[in-house]
Every structure is written in C-alpha cells, then in structure tokens.
Write a structure and sequence with these properties.
Elements (H helix, E strand, L loop, with lengths): L8 E3 L5 E3 L3 E2 L7 H12 L4 E3 L7 H10 L8 E6 L6 H15 L4 E6 L7 H13 L3 E7 L3 H10 L6 E5 L7 H9 L3 E5 L11 H10 L3 H11 L3 E2 L6 H8 L8 H8 L20
Parallel strand pairs: 3-4, 4-5, 5-6, 6-7, 7-8, 8-9, 9-10
Antiparallel strand pairs: 1-2
Helix pairs in contact: 1-2, 2-3, 3-4, 7-8
Length: 280
C-alpha cells in the first residue's frame, strides 16, 4: 500500500501506525534552529519527527512538540539509544534521560542506534521491558545487517518492528530489504539523499525534468515506491514543504529500474560491521 499523502501511515507488525514520511533532525542545532524546523514541518502537515540522543537536540524537539498546537497523540516521535549506553540498566537510564529532555510521557518508536559487537541482546531486553510497560509504542533497531537481525531475533521475545538504515539509489540494500520484508520488519531510510551527494545524478536529473520536480523529490518518491519509510532532513521551511510535495506524480517501472540500477553499494556513513564509536 503506497501512500497518497503526507499523513498516510504504514501499519507496523504490532498494529501501530507510523507515517510513511517524517522530518529527520540529524545535525540540526539544538535551540532555535531545531525548534523552528520541527514546528515548520508540523505546520506543513508532517506528523513524524526522528531524533536521537547523540544529536543533542531532544530538548528542542520536545519544545517544538509542546508549542506546535497539534495534539501529542497525532504525532509520531522517534529517538535512539546511543552506543555508549548499551546494556540493560544503562539503556533504561538513557531512556529516562531522553524522555526528560523530550518532555514526553511516552515514545512512539525507540531504536538501538548501531548494533556494536556484544551488547545489543542485553539492550533489547530493556527495550522489550519498556515496550511491555507501555512507555514505547514500537521498538526497533537502526543500522542492523541481516546477521545482526538473525542473532537478535533468535534471542528476542519481541521482534524489532523497524530497521532504520542508510538507503538511497547508491545503496539499495536489496538483500536486507527482502529479509526485513520476510520478517515483517519495516525498513526506514536515513540519509535518503546520501547527504546531498545524489543531487547532481544525471539519470535522476533527467527524470526530475520530465515531472518538473527536484532530484530530491524524485528520490523520495522512489523510496515510497519501494515501501521504505523516509525521513529527509532540512532546516529551511521551503525545502521541508518541497520534500513533501511528492504525491502528485508516479514513477514508471522503467524509471524505477533506472534508479535501482544506480546502486554502487556505497555509503555516506559508517559500515555497521566496523562502526565502533562510543562502544569503547
């Protein structure tokens, strides 16, 4: 079921509705910049905001939620546990810290930010506890490869509902997508524009001209065609609005195949198997 507008949601494996599209706030400065970008997104119809402890802007996201004029239950808020906090007790403590910063009574989605080496199963037990207590409506992971997911699921009582990974036309992650589909884990794209590196890709530029759209809009439409949840980041209201203006055109199967063909298995971010910052 592909979305028809910005408020459309996908139903996660536990029945919780999550908007197909949200605002990411990676590298958005805590304070006025973060408050205004979140408020601009909500004012223009976004209902999902994705932050993380390591982004150091949870307070501003929380302030924007309070001031936006939209009831809390209409919003979908995600944050993530940072690497150095992995482990059972430390996860529970880190969750309380995030909730205090956000000023929220409950969270919609909590993610393990990176797998690391040996603590994610212990961390997941804490996630399951928070989920069972109703503190979090859905739990998931970020940057998990197939082997991490297999290992986690084998020891888990509750399967992750979401896996947020780097996903864009240069990194299509087809095997991971197929595995997540089979396990009813929703794939979510971070860095859908490869941190801006795709904004002069000739193949996409040609398609964008045909539809009188930007390259970013074509890529975000391609995400949704693949039924991948997406969270583009911008601090400019005009760009935030433009990113969401993608529901009035449909890519052809040939165009989808052309964009799929740009895959290089190349990343803008770290590889999950070698990412170790904060695990020391």
């Amino acid at each position: 079921m592909k979305p028809a507008n910005l408020k459309d949601s996908v139903i996660l494996s536990n029945g919780v509705k999550m908007p197909w599209m949200g605002l990411g706030v990676f590298k958005v400065k805590n304070g006025e910049e973060a408050v205004q970008s979140v408020k601009a997104a909500i004012k223009n119809g976004y209902r999902s905001v994705d932050t993380a402890a390591i982004y150091q802007n949870e307070e501003s996201v929380g302030q924007a939620i309070k001031e936006c004029g939209v009831p809390r239950e209409e919003l979908f808020i995600t944050t993530k546990l940072w690497n150095s906090e992995q482990g059972y007790e430390s996860t529970l403590n880190a969750f309380e810290t995030s909730m205090n910063k956000l000023g929220l009574d409950y969270l919609d989605l909590y993610l393990i930010h990176w797998p690391g080496k040996d603590k994610y199963k212990e961390t997941w037990k804490a996630f399951e506890k928070l989920y069972k207590e109703g503190r979090v409506r859905a739990i998931g992971v970020s940057n998990f490869q197939i082997h991490h997911l297999e290992d986690l699921i084998a020891a888990a009582e509750i399967k992750p509902m979401v896996n947020q990974v780097e996903f864009h036309p240069h990194l299509t992650q087809k095997d991971l997508m197929a595995y997540c589909t089979k396990e009813e884990i929703r794939l979510e794209a971070w860095s859908p524009l490869k941190q801006g590196q795709l904004l002069n890709e000739p193949v996409i530029e040609k398609i964008a001209k045909k539809y009188n759209k930007s390259i970013a809009q074509v890529i975000l439409r391609w995400d949704l065609h693949h039924e991948v949840i997406t969270i583009p980041k911008s601090v400019k209201e005009q760009r935030i609005v433009e990113n969401a203006d993608i529901f009035d055109f449909e890519l052809t199967s040939e165009e989808i195949a052309e964009i799929d063909g740009l895959n290089q298995d190349s990343r803008a971010g770290s590889h999950p198997d070698t990412m170790s910052v904060g695990f020391e």
